């Protein structure tokens, strides 16, 4: 079963949106297999966003993601990586479709409330980076056979 890394960014935590975002993912049929509320270190932030190291917004991105607690999660389900990306909406919330997380809950590209892995390679890398050493739970919900 496909797994993806999802993070509610500091703006989402500060605005009390953890429940809203988790609710959406659960209702879609995805299964939560790991989660933690945590303060991100500069080192972890830089590793997580290493593909953006040379971008002009890298410094801002790292200070933002370390500015308060984030809620880091692993979600599992058929096509989970692409499904979560669709549910998140476009990177710039002003272009994100209504009904998506960013399209419903955010306005600025710098504070777009949620991160989701963009490929199987980044999902594997990010799950190892954020939850390395911890084994995501293996469990079945009785409703899973209806999804
Ligand atoms: P996504 O989060 O949709 O995967 P990304 O990986 O291209 O988007 O960029 C990572 C984050 O960096 C993004 O969520 C917000 C920030 N970001 C991206 N482009 C930006 C820009 N042009 N100006 C400011 N922040 C930007
Ligand atoms: Mg990305």
Automatic annotation (TrEMBL):
It catalyses: a 2'-deoxyribonucleoside 5'-diphosphate + ATP = a 2'-deoxyribonucleoside 5'-triphosphate + ADP; dZDP + ATP = dZTP + ADP; a ribonucleoside 5'-diphosphate + ATP = a ribonucleoside 5'-triphosphate + ADP. SMART domains: NDK. It is an enzyme of class 2 (transferase). Its EC number is 2.7.4.6. CDD domains: NDPk_I. The keyword Transferase applies. Residues 1-138 form the Nucleoside diphosphate kinase-like domain. Its cofactor is Mg(2+). ATP binds at residues 9, 57, 85, 91, 102, 112. Keywords: ATP-binding, Cytoplasm, Kinase, Magnesium, Metal-binding, Nucleotide metabolism, Nucleotide-binding, Phosphoprotein, Transferase. GO terms for biological process: CTP biosynthetic process; GTP biosynthetic process; UTP biosynthetic process. Pfam families: NDK. The active site is at residue 115. InterPro entries: NDK-like_dom, NDK-like_dom_sf, Nucleoside_diP_kinase, Nucleoside_diP_kinase_AS. GO terms for molecular function: ATP binding; metal ion binding; nucleoside diphosphate kinase activity. One of its GO terms (cellular component) is cytoplasm. It is found in: Cytoplasm. Belongs to the NDK family. Major role in the synthesis of nucleoside triphosphates other than ATP. The ATP gamma phosphate is transferred to the NDP beta phosphate via a ping-pong mechanism, using a phosphorylated active-site intermediate. (Microbial infection) Catalyzes the phosphorylation of dZDP to dZTP, when the bacterium is infected by a phage that produces the substrate for the synthesis of dZTP (2- amino-2'-deoxyadenosine 5'-triphosphate), which is then used by the phage as a DNA polymerase substrate. Homotetramer. This is Nucleoside diphosphate kinase. It comes from Kyrpidia spormannii. The lineage of its organism: Bacteria, Bacillati, Bacillota, Bacilli, Bacillales.
């Amino acid at each position: 079963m496909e797994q993806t890394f999802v993070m509610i960014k500091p703006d989402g935590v500060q605005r009390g949106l953890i429940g809203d975002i988790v609710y959406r993912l659960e209702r879609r049929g995805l299964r939560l297999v790991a989660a933690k509320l945590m303060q991100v270190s500069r080192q972890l932030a830089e590793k997580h966003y290493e593909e953006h190291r040379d971008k002009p917004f890298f410094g801002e991105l790292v200070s933002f993601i370390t500015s308060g607690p984030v809620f880091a999660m692993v979600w599992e389900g058929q096509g989970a990586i692409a499904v979560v990306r669709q549910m998140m909406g476009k990177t710039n919330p002003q272009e994100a479709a209504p009904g998506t997380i960013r399209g419903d809950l955010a306005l600025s590209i710098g504070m777009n409330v949620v991160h989701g892995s963009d490929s199987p390679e980044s999902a594997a890398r990010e799950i190892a980076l954020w939850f390395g050493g911890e084994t995501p739970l293996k469990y079945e919900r009785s409703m899973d056979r209806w999804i």
